[in-house]
Each structure stands twice: as C-alpha cells, then as structure tokens.
Amino acid sequence: MPVSTDGRLAGRLAVLDRLAEERGIRIEHDVALAPLTTLRVGGVADRMTMVGSTPELVDALGLARDAGIRAGVLGKGSDIVVADAGVRGLVIRNRADGIAIDGSLVLAESGAAMATLVKRCTTSGLAGIEFGISIPGSVGGAVWANAGAHGGEMKDVVVSVDAWETENEARLALANVDCDFAYRDSRFKRGHEIVLATLLRLTAGDSGEIASRVAAHQEQRRATQPLAHQNAGSVFRNPPGDHAGRLIDEAGLKGHRVGSAEVSTLHANFIVVDRGGRAADVRAVGDHVRSVVAERLGVELAYEIEFVGDWGWDDRWATATTEMAGT
C-alpha cells in the first residue's frame, strides 16, 4: 500500500515526477522492495527507477538532486535490511552491467553481478577474482564494501574506480590508493560518491584450474552457509584475529529467535527469516546477539549488513551503492 509522506516530502516527490516526465525517465510509485533483496523483508520505496547504463545512472542521480530528493542505489539486494516502513525518496535499481576484457584488464560497470564477472573472467583464463563467486552482490556493492571471501578482497584486484560525486556533480577517477580500502570498508561508505565502474587487473591462468578453484569455493559456500533460507549474508564483521560466527556460537546463540527471524543453526553469523518476515525482527535478533556477545565474551561486534530506509531514527537511504556482501 502507498506510504504516508509529510507535506514537504510530498511536494518534492511531485517535483521529481514532473522532472522525470520532462526528461523521459520512467518512475514507479510505491514499489515493494522485499522481493528485490535477498533477505526479502521491508516496505516500499516512494519512487523507483531502473537504469541500464552508466549514463542513465548519472541522469537518475541528477534527477534526484534537482528535485531535492534523497536517492540510493540498489544493486543485487544483498547485505541490506530494508525497514518495514520502507524507503523515503528515490531508489535507483542499477542494471548497468557491462563487462569489457582487454588482456589482463577488466572494466566492469557497477551493476554487473559478481558471479557473472567471475564466470566471464574464468572463461577468458583470468585469475585473481575467483573469491568473488561467493559474493552475491554487484560489482559496485563489492567495491563499496571492499567485499571479500576465501582470503581475497576487492582491494587486491582494483586498479581504479570511476565514481560520481553527487554534491558537486563531478565524475572522479580514483586510483586504488585513493579509495581508502580497509576490512569491509572504503571511502564510498563515508561520502557522497557513487561507484559507476571499476577497472580490475587480473593474471593469466589456465581456465580449467581457475574453474576448479571457483567450483571449490561454491561447494564450500553451499556446505557452510544457509543458502536455502532467506538471508542477507554475513551479519557482523569478523573482529581482529577471530570470527563473529565462532563467538556467537560460543555465546550459545545459534537458533535464538525473535518473531520471524533467527540465528542460523548452520552458520551463526547469518540471520535467516521466514517468508513474510519482518525487518524489525532481524534487527531485534542482531541487537540481542551484539548485547549477549559483549556481556559474555567482552567483544563488541560491528554490523556488516546495512539497515536502510525509515527506521524511525533516520530516513536515510545511504547515498552509495549499498548492497553487498554480503553486500
């Protein structure tokens, strides 16, 4: 059902609709976001537009700026928990997914699926991105979060990032060193810069051997993660020298349930949700886990998943390619 908006927001949404019509940008109203995320919870977006190329993505960001509306970019919908009250403003569904290979260099648009990127590189005999098969999000989300798995991270293969600075409407070319990559972190989490595309440098290898490593990663993921259940990926970052899942298990929290959500009994750093579940239940489980682990083991767990939308304390949707890794 349509979301309620205050008068000022309603006015800005009307401006957004008018500008979109003038510019030939198709806008949808009151779009359910749960089916567009891997966790499958949450409410509706006031407005949504889908883009199929980098220029269309830039145009959509400009549209939101001109209308005075907050905008967020949605890739493959992993690593996020959308509030039950939904998202105020404009959600840009990113389907800019071009991939170009030139020798050992790979240029991938931000909306490309990591799994597709890995398969293209494997076929081309390029090694170094095999870990990405276990990242269920988009390239943009993976860069945004410096996503990683199996001992590899995006920072290991990124040469440069093409980004859009939303406040000054400027296109930026950022070298790896300028991206401030850290464990599950980058400059894109903290500013007003949207990942448009990234240039990767890989190494030549035997396609068969690369494919074997990819298959082994896939098998490990199937054996250790609750892929048959709705989830958003790893819930917490691993503390230095330890693993969040081990700590949660040691605290006796596997199977802890609140309403429709519970700590996975297969992997304790995952929260799984029933069909038709509630985002509030996910947050309640996560907050309880953090509290108990801190009390019993003295470790403060930090969320890896992102809580986006209207949670009551803020109506922000992060102005970045928020999606990963788990994001």
Compact overview of the structure:
The protein has 327 residues and is of the alpha+beta class. It is 28% helix and 24% strand.
Describe the secondary-structure layout.
Blueprint: H1 7-23, E1 28-32, E2 44-51, H2 54-67, E3 71-74, E4 80-82, E5 87-94, E6 99-102, E7 105-109, H3 114-123, E8 126-127, H4 139-145, E9 148-149, E10 152-153, E11 158-165, E12 170-175, E13 193-201, E14 203-204, H5 207-224, H6 244-250, E15 257-258, E16 261-263, E17 271-273, H7 279-297, E18 306-308
Parallel strand pairs: 2-5, 3-5, 4-18
Antiparallel strand pairs: 1-2, 6-7, 7-13, 8-14, 9-10, 11-12, 11-13, 15-16, 16-17
Helix pairs in contact: 1-2, 3-5
Would you kindly provide a written description of the structure presented here, covering whatever features stand out?
This protein has 327 residues and is of the alpha+beta class. It folds into 3 domains: 7-94, Uridine Diphospho-n-acetylenolpyruvylglucosamine Reductase, domain 2 (2-Layer Sandwich), CATH 3.30.43.10; 99-208, Uridine Diphospho-n-acetylenolpyruvylglucosamine Reductase, domain 3 (2-Layer Sandwich); 235-303, Uridine Diphospho-n-acetylenolpyruvylglucosamine Reductase, domain 1, CATH 3.90.78.10. It is 28% helix and 24% strand. The chain is built from 7 helices and 18 strands. The protein has helices at residues 7-23, 54-67, 114-123, 139-145, 207-224, 244-250, 279-297; strands spanning 28-32, 44-51, 71-74, 80-82, 87-94, 99-102, 105-109, 126-127, 148-149, 152-153, 158-165, 170-175, 193-201, 203-204, 257-258, 261-263, 271-273, 306-308. It has a 5-stranded antiparallel sheet with strand order 6-7-13-11-12. Strand 11 and strand 12 form a beta hairpin. The longest helix is centred in the C-terminal third of the chain and has 19 residues, at 279-297. The protein is globular. It starts with 6 loop residues before the first helix and ends in a 19-residue tail after the last strand. 46% of the residues are buried. The model is unreliable at 314-327 (pLDDT under 50).
